[in-house]
């Protein structure tokens, strides 16, 4: 029976080949042809292999256990230390609130020129423009007519005639009094136009070079309105020297008659409800009566827009001003607006006309003297 690794200590007895053979030394090798020797060597080799594999597996299990212990050690330490840490040791982060960049203008002025007489409405577009608090043109305050997030519309203030042809800076400020940024308008690429993108940054991975942007400002050029110039020129020429060669004079109440004459000078054409027959001198009530002229203008939104005295900021040179001295509802006097000034204290209006012959009569002085109320028609 071959020996197994379980009985390595049992002495081996080789088969006797003759009676005269001597006992063999334990260290003496067995004959090469011995079956027992080959079986023993195979058994020993198999046992060593099993032992090596077992030790290797045991080492791997031990290493895995040590790694698992190392991975779980911080968690155990953290769970052990957690009860000792107070609530004050907990750090909480709050997301940063978005920064409001403030209002920004991204367009040009909707019109580049406006009559020096004022009243032209101009629009700019951009972002967060509902935060715009004030607009000025050439340093004079302009009235904001409408404003929302995307655009602001303001009325150009009147200026002196000497400003004709000059360029006035347009400035917008926010509620904090800070100037509103004016950036380059967004470029619009026409359909079918090919655009070559720069290789830098997009394809090479190199940092993109910043594109320089020149600071931009807004400006408006004051011009002359021929129609208003002609009307104002007529008023200033005939407010004291009546034009009797062309028009009749209505003694004692020539104010509406003279206002109608100024509208003809402006370029208006007579119609069936507003007229003067130069041959017979016949005239419609709307031509000669302040109350009838009010009713005519109120019925013609294509020619005029009614305004009350709280809307002075919309009044411009060439508009029609009317007064109700006794608050009866009728109109007692008619004049032509000859000057408008917008200031921080409010809007000042001056008028010219007949009966109260004047070229620049302060509306506030007129109301303080005669009482009552003032109203206006913005002429288109």
Please summarize what this structure is:
This protein is α+β, with helices and mostly antiparallel strands.
Please describe what this structure looks like.
- The protein is 24% helix and 23% strand.
- Among the domains are: 104-185 and 215-223, Immunoglobulins (Immunoglobulin-like, Sandwich); 226-379.
- It has 380 residues and is an alpha+beta fold.
- It is elongated.
- The chain is built from 6 helices and 15 strands.
- It has helices spanning 35-81, 226-238, 255-266, 285-288, 290-298, 363-370; strands spanning 104-105, 113-115, 121-127, 132-137, 140-147, 151-155, 167-174, 181-182, 218-223, 304-308, 320-324, 333-343, 346-353, 358-362, 373-379.
């Amino acid at each position: 029976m071959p020996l197994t690794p379980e009985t390595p200590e049992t002495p081996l007895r080789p088969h006797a080949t003759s009676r005269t053979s001597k006992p063999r030394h334990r260290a003496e090798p067995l004959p090469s042809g011995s079956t027992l020797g080959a079986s023993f060597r195979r058994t020993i080799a198999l046992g060593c292999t099993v032992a090596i594999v077992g030790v290797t597996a045991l080492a791997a299990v031990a290493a895995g256990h040590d790694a698992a212990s190392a991975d779980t050690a911080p968690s155990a330490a953290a769970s052990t230390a957690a009860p000792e840490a107070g609530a004050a040791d907990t750090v909480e982060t709050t997301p940063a609130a978005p920064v409001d960049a403030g209002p920004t203008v991204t367009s040009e002025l909707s019109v580049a020129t406006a009559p020096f007489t004022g009243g032209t409405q101009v629009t700019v577009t951009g972002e967060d423009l509902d935060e715009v608090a004030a607009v000025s043109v050439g340093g004079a305050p302009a009235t904001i007519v409408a404003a929302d997030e995307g655009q602001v519309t303001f009325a150009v203030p009147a200026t002196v005639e000497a400003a004709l042809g000059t360029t006035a800076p347009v400035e917008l400020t926010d509620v904090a009094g800070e100037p509103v940024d004016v950036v380059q308008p967004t470029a619009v690429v026409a359909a079918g136009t090919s655009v070559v993108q720069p290789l830098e940054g997009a394809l090479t991975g190199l940092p993109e070079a910043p594109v320089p942007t020149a600071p931009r400002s807004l400006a408006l050029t004051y011009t002359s309105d021929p129609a208003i110039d002609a009307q104002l020129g007529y008023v200033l020429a005939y407010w004291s020297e009546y034009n009797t060669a062309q028009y009749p004079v209505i003694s004692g109440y020539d104010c509406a008659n003279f206002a109608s004459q100024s509208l003809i000078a402006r370029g208006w054409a007579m119609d069936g409800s507003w007229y003067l027959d130069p041959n017979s001198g016949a005239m419609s009530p709307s031509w000669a009566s302040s109350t009838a002229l009010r009713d005519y203008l109120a019925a013609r939104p294509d020619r005029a827009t009614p305004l009350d005295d709280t809307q002075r900021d919309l009044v411009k040179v060439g508009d029609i001003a009317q007064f109700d001295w006794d608050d009866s509802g009728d109109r007692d006097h008619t004049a032509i607006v000859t000057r408008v000034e917008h200031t921080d204290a409010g809007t000042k209006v001056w008028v010219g006309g007949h009966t109260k012959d004047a070229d620049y009569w302060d509306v506030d002085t007129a109301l303080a003297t005669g009482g009552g109320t003032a109203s206006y028609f913005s002429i288109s």
